[in-house]
Amino acid sequence: MNFQTTEEFAKQLDRKDPLRKYRSRFHIPHRDDKDVIYFCGNSLGLMPKTTEEYLNRELAVWKQDGVLGNHTRWEPYHEHVTESTARLVGAQPSEVVVMNALTVNIHLLLVSFYQPTEDRFKIIIEKGAFPSDRYAVESQIKFHGFDPDNALVELEPRSGERCLRTNDILNTLRENENTVATIMIGGVNYYTGQAFDMGKITETGRECGAKVGFDLAHAVGNLPLSLHEWGMDFAAWCSYKYLCAGPGSPGGIFVHERHGSWDGPRFNGWWGHDKNTRFNMDPDFISTKGAEGWQISNAPILGLACLRSSMEIINDIGMLALRIKSEELTAYMEYLLNQLGDSLKIITPSDPAQRGCQLSVVMNNSGKQVFEKLKVKNVICDWREPDVIRLAPKPLYNSFSEVYQFVEILRSILQTR
Ligand SMILES: *Cc1c(COP(=O)(O)O)cnc(C)c1O
Fold first, then answer.
1. Separation of 251 CA from ligand 1 center, angstroms?
2. What pLDDT, on the 0 to 100 scale, is given for residue 364?
3. Strand order, beta sheet including 388-391
4. Which of 146-164 are b and which e, b meaning 16 or more Cβ less than 10 Å from the residue's Cβ?
């Protein structure tokens, strides 16, 4: 794609954007009567205008009918998002379920997919993984009586580099092939924005005899995924980032079909019980098949209602169309940022296959001050210690003109430093 530096060119890209009408389906935060430029959809996606209606419908049932809502409506409520979720992540409906919060789900999946033995006890993660993931795997290792000092292997970029090379990842897996129990990596790293080759990592990991899982918090709704085909054992994600389901709304899990009739270790609860006989309230646990067997508690209906509203929009567009715009929007931002010369450096890979929508930018000197000034100018992005500004132009609602305006604001900030 050949980009140009003019404002008119940004407007032209917007006019040609087949997804431009979707922006009006979201509430865009504003300040001083002006829309802010919101590049923080990787932390909390914006609210669809239909969300209140979806939520109010469930509140009205509760208000009107009390517990009767359980029987008439809510018991199978999570199933409303099963098919759209499966399509979004490239899975079969029986391989996914929406439940709980992300870190909770990581623990529940590790109960099943991290079963260390004397010989095979290591977990491989990426260094610089989201802290919660690291806390989770470290505590799992300790829970099983092993020592993170030798059981936790962290994939580290080469010295002087910020991102991991696929071959280095695969080599580390092979070096640990007799001792690795589980691999759990982010699909897209939250800090650098690097997307990993999930197919290759899964293939090599499984050849090494490990269970392979991914944290897809920054991948789901950002990249097209083929979880079933890639063959990973498990995955988990949250819905409030790229899926716009609102703060604390429930996450999702994937468990590959080959584990569909699971009889290994798992923490059980009544919602994982065979649905046909769940309400017989028998003391014996009879598992439902597929990913739903990992459910423990009854579902958070209000969060699910919010998720339904946003999944309807995402479904309407489809992940492939989203990705086409996303690649162009991010490449355009990259192009304009590169015009600003060496006052900043993009650490996210420039290869579109190795990133989603996010660009992570290191400002030479005073990055924090630049970030604060952006905030004053109504640009919402985020700052991650020690030196990174994360920018996530999202194809659902961000425009090319916003990217243009943002870079102009940044240019003026850099000039007046
Ligand atoms: C956002 C995020 C989390 C947050 O976990 P919660 O349990 O939803 O609070 C965890 N891991 C990664 C990789 C994330 O990006």
1. 10
2. 80
3. 344-346, 359-363, 388-391, 382-384
4. beeeebbbebebeeeebbb
pLDDT at 154: 97
Residue 41's Cβ-side half-sphere holds a number of Cα atoms within 13 Å equal to 32
243 lines ligand 1 (CB under 6 A): no
The amino acid at 359: L
Please give the Cα distance from 295 to 305 (Å, whole number): 18
Residue 305's pLDDT is 98
List pLDDT tens digits, range 17-45.
999 999 999 999 999 888 899 999 999 99
Distance (Å) of CA 27 to CA 48, 149, 245, 318, 374: 6, 47, 13, 20, 21
**Given the CA of residue 103, which atom of ligand 1 is nearest to it?**
7
How high is the pLDDT of residue 310? 98
Determine which residue's CA is closest to atom 8 belonging to ligand 1. 102
Q: Which residues contact 287 (CB under 8 A, 6 or more apart)?
A: 262, 263, 268, 272, 273, 274, 293
The ligand 1 atom nearest the CA atom of 190: 15
- State residue 282's pLDDT score: 87
335 CA → ligand 1 middle, Å: 30
Domain boundaries, the chain: 7-47+319-415, 54-314
- CA terminus-to-terminus distance, the chain: 32
Q: What is the pTM of this model?
A: 0.97
Residue 50, φ and ψ in degrees, nearest 5: -85, -5
Ligand 1 atom nearest to CA at 106: 7
Give the pLDDT mean for 109-117.
98
Beta carbon of 397 within 6 Å of any ligand 1 atom: no
Q: In the predicted model, is pLDDT for residue 332 greater than 90?
A: yes
Please give the pLDDT value at position 344. 93
Residue 63: φ, ψ to 5°: -60, -45
CATH of 54-314 given 3.40.50.300, 3.40.50.410, 3.40.1010.10, 3.40.640.10: 3.40.640.10
Write the class of the CATH domain 7-47+319-415.
alpha beta
